[in-house]
Amino acid sequence: MVTSKGLSGRAALITGVSRARGIGFSVASRFARAGASLYLTHNVGHDQAQPWGGQDIYSVMAELSAQLHDGAVLRHTHADFEDPAEASRVIDWLDQPVDILVANHARSGGDSSLAHITAGELESHWRVNAQSVLLLTQGFAQQCVGESGRVIWMTSGQALGPMPGEVGYAGTKAMLAGLVPTVADELIDRGILLNAVNPGPVNTGYLDPETIYSRELCEDLLQRFPLGRFGEPDDPARLVEFLVSDAGRWIVGQVIDSEGGFRRWTLT
Known about the structure:
Radius of gyration: 18 Å
Largest sheet: 7 strands, parallel
Number of helices: 8
Distance between the termini: 42 Å
């Protein structure tokens, strides 16, 4: 169902779009219904290795294609951002300039506490969660024309409380959050606005009982949400759509928490 034409004539590169329950899918869906063309990356193998599993990528893309406005296009490609050359390849793969970048991808798993994390695990999280985002942003800025450029990074709630057992993930997401003011200051001189979104705990499958946490732990966590539900992928997607639209044109260099009043606690 078409909802608006607010992004008509614009094109977006969105990474990490491989499952209908993912935040990337919800962002792409909102953009499609607002009139944008979509250039999407995915890594199905990464999802298949997770407790929540993967999804047939062609069914995912077909669902998004059905939401496009007339004249808009959808292209997609596999991307493994652990390869330092992948960001450049993705930028070269684009067949037209894009004016929106949503760096939604991240590595899940292969993480640990400070006492047990390895150099290889740290390196992998750095490459996927931070290095590739910076290189994608660099390449995006070089090809972006006009003064309507928007970049969205996805961070996490590591500045709001501990994330036990996730030193690699929390560290790389904290790096992105810390770099937002510096990179935003550089990009704004080219008319490109950078902001980051912390989506908070969003149930993309990992908060289903017994997927990662016990049923009791999931129920306890649910009580920390005053509105009585976990975050849903469309919750941060709404914020992302606002930030890349004309309505968000005066917001730059911010890390915005979208957590629905979540009363933070420590998962143990």
